[in-house]
């Protein structure tokens, strides 16, 4: 269910985006519009930009001095409504929804803390044990990637053994690999 937000909530609802001489405006719920000299107003559509670097964030194409640039909607909201922000801080989405660019959802945080909140490896990494045929743990690695690199094999080979997806649990090096915790849905590949 979508929350009710009024179309226009008074004179402070729209603000000019700084640096564009009143050509573009944004409101508190992150709608962007182009204002023409004749007074005509055209709504602009934010679009997702794919790629690992951008993580599908929302962008708007703005033109200045004949050059068009893609500007992240989060940045537009932060610059327009907050102006400058504390040194060594960056704008971020408070509820971690990167498509929710409402003013109430924008906060400021240092990069280290933001990395801890949103880092892709912060909660997914699991320790991997290298196990011999007698069931003894020979080595411990921080992740499947580290285990693969240290044993000169592919990452997928280690993952398949950890997840129990192969008929022969032992790799060509004579060892098998398993995650630190064999929780629900995971098979232990160590034979007793």
Features:
about 25% strand; four-stranded antiparallel sheet; disordered C terminus; single chain; alpha+beta; elongated; about 15% helix; about 190 residues; 4 helices; three-stranded antiparallel sheet; Homing Intron 3 (I-Ppo) Encoded Endonuclease, Chain A; 2 domains
Task: Characterise the protein shown here.
The protein is of the alpha+beta class. The chain has two domains: 14-118, Alpha-Beta Complex (Homing Intron 3 (I-Ppo) Encoded Endonuclease, Chain A), CATH 3.90.75.20; 128-179, no CATH class. 17% of the residues lie in helices and 27% in strands. It has helices at residues 73-82, 111-118, 144-150, 155-162; strands at 14-16, 24-27, 32-35, 41-44, 47-48, 58-64, 67-72, 90-93, 106-109, 128-131, 137-141, 176-179. The strands form four sheets. It has a four-stranded antiparallel beta sheet, with helices on one face. Helix 3 (144-150) packs across helix 4. The longest helix has 10 residues, at 73-82. The termini are far apart. Mean pLDDT is 83; it is low at 183-192.
Helix content: 10-25%
CATH architecture of the largest domain: Alpha-Beta Complex
Overall geometry comes to elongated
Secondary-structure-based class equals alpha+beta
What number is the mean pLDDT? Answer: 83
The count of DSSP E runs of length 2 or more, i.e. the number of strands, is 12
Order of helices and strands: EEEEEEEHEEHEEHHE
CATH class of the largest domain: Alpha Beta
Give the CATH topology of the largest domain. Homing Intron 3 (I-Ppo) Encoded Endonuclease, Chain A
Number of domains: 2
